[in-house]
Design a protein that fits this description.
Elements (H helix, E strand, L loop, with lengths): L14 H27 L2 H26 L5 H28 L6 H56 L2 H16 L3 H20 L5 E3 H19 L3 E7 L7 E3 L3 H13 L6 E10 L2 E8 L17 H14 L4 E5 L6 E8 L11
Helix pairs in contact: 1-2, 2-3, 2-4, 3-4, 4-9, 5-6, 5-7, 6-7, 7-8
Length: 359
Amino acid sequence: MCIVLKRDQLGFPGFWTLQILGWICYYLLMLVSMLPSMQMTGSVREFHLLTLTTFVGTCLMRPLCRWLIRKPYSWMALESRGFLFALLLGVIAGVGGELLTHGWARLGLGDALDASVQCTITLFLWASLYFSIKQWQQSTQERERLLRAEAEVRDARLSALRYQLNPHFLFNSLNAVSTLVLDGNAAAATRMLAQIGELLRTILDSDTIVETPLSQEIACTEQYLAIEQTRLGDRLRVDVALAADTLDALVPCLLLQPLVENAVRHGIAQQVEGGSIRIRSLTQNAQLQISIHNSGVPYTHAVQPVRGANGIGLKNTIERLRTLYGDDHRFELQWPQAGGCEVTMVLPLRKAQASEMPP
């Protein structure tokens, strides 16, 4: 006969599987170790009832421990609160086991105290094991989430050549270089080729990381904007204003460039008179807020948050934000009445370590 254990998404046995198997092993171990003394004292019934009440106590401990583990408590805080719950249920289980064994008439204070201490210790050890397993599962889930995020970054970096530096962009850039050469402006043509090569090198040569300081992300984005300014000239105006306390905030790698590219391609390049790109960042309520706005023709329809995205860049950005932050973020695409388009992102505020900051 083959026994199939029910497992969670990490391949770890479920709670009730571990609970039942663990208590069977505990029961057999204690039975073997206490069998000689139980034969002499005739306390077999007392052992079984005390084991049963302690098992029931652990079942009652589970919702309490689940409630505790969801709180942002330190390990010591978890253990201290777990001990208080174990003490309360241990006294109830110990006294209850003695009552079931001897009844009210023969209930002894010393026996009840010994049983309560034994139940409390067992329940406390059970709670500590529960906390350890849950924290291990959470850390494993976090590692898997980061691995998925790293895979998203790899895909984003490969996709950078496909949808960020796509044939249209390369064609326009090289065509602009050709025009500069024909006009005799070799210095500008050389500068533009160097800028294209530098951006390619930044994307391909950098390490695969999940998050990067906002200052580094802006530096990469400015490399792209420098190429577009060489191509579009005075038609593209850039205004970047970042709050000082946001420069070391962590953001997904390659977050801004595809959004800025969309703003240039669909908002600025199509206008004869050009326009402006405005990038802002600030912190508010322990969150990082980043906005990218491009000028354009006024829209008459109402401003509404994005509910979907057809562009590859937007889809990729939304999916990576969801993978990294779950529901703890906000992404909105708006069309102000004054014209243009604005992307707003609100992310958890996490600071980079000193070693992660650029020199």
